[in-house]
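Appendix C reproduces, verbatim, an entry submitted by the partner laboratory led by Prof. M.T., so that reviewers can inspect both the input and the predicted structure.
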Amino acid sequence: MSEQQVSANGHEVLVRVEKLTKHFPITRGILFQRQVGAVQAVDKVSFDIRKGETLGLVGESGCGKSTTGRTILQLYRPTAGKVFYGDKELTTLKGAALRQMRRNMQMVFQDPYASLNPRMAVGAIVAEPLEVHNIGTARERRERVQELLRLVGLNPYFVNRYPHEFSGGQRQRIGIARALALQPEFMVLDEPISALDVSIQAQVVNLLEDLQEKFGLTYLFIAHDLSMVRHISDRTAVMYLGKVVELADRDELYEHPAHPYTQALLSAVPIPDPKKERERKRIILEGDVPSPVNPPSGCRFHTRCPLAKDICKEEEPEWREIAPDHWVACHLV
């Protein structure tokens, strides 16, 4: 086993992200376009995803969570940094080599209404990955599609129906079936329940947990619902304006949040006990999230941080381990 595959505390690592950066260019001009700036969506992000675990990635809308997931899978090619899948570096792969690796990595998209082709029947949607990778005969594909639909709790005789005939929860199950078609090891779940009714969310999360247990899957679970992330994830990473500011075991993070941004996020999560809810202190952040086109100097959170000092404005905080397996980027911790 190579050094890329084992973390410092002995866990087997499936995906390793090193200083991953994704900037989207801003151009001007009609005929001769020139770059006048860049949206710094993801900036020098580093973390490991261990084999068989669920890593939760949380943060406000627009902080770069979905871009991180898509860049790991090379749906967006990174501006800088490296992504290792086992001992293979994905950022250097192209064409057939990358397509071969894609069999191991799949994505479930946020919007089940937009991620399924309305002109294709469900059977064709779920079978498409098998056809792209030329797996099995036509009959074997049909049988595999029916098996996948059963697996996600849908009637296998629905293969000739179209996406508009299904509810949001059923469409998301179709998306999950499509992602499972190639028997991947790693799945990026990009806010898979945020577009669904609350009554359906728990069903989809339970399905994802059952599938993980059955097939030994590894998940990157992107969300902004912190209570759901605590339920499903083993470790949680908190993102703010393109940077990961804290990473820890889920119970450690929720009980001992170190970064002021994490503390503010957790103070907004409702507590079911009315007495505790009345007693606890909410942290209300002042101002708006700065633009990723021109992020603040030093610590990106200093413009809204209630504890900010002069050093926060001048120097970028170091990513360091403050307790076993608890990482944070903050000068004041």
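The longest helix spans residues 198-215. Additional entries are available on request from the coordinating office.
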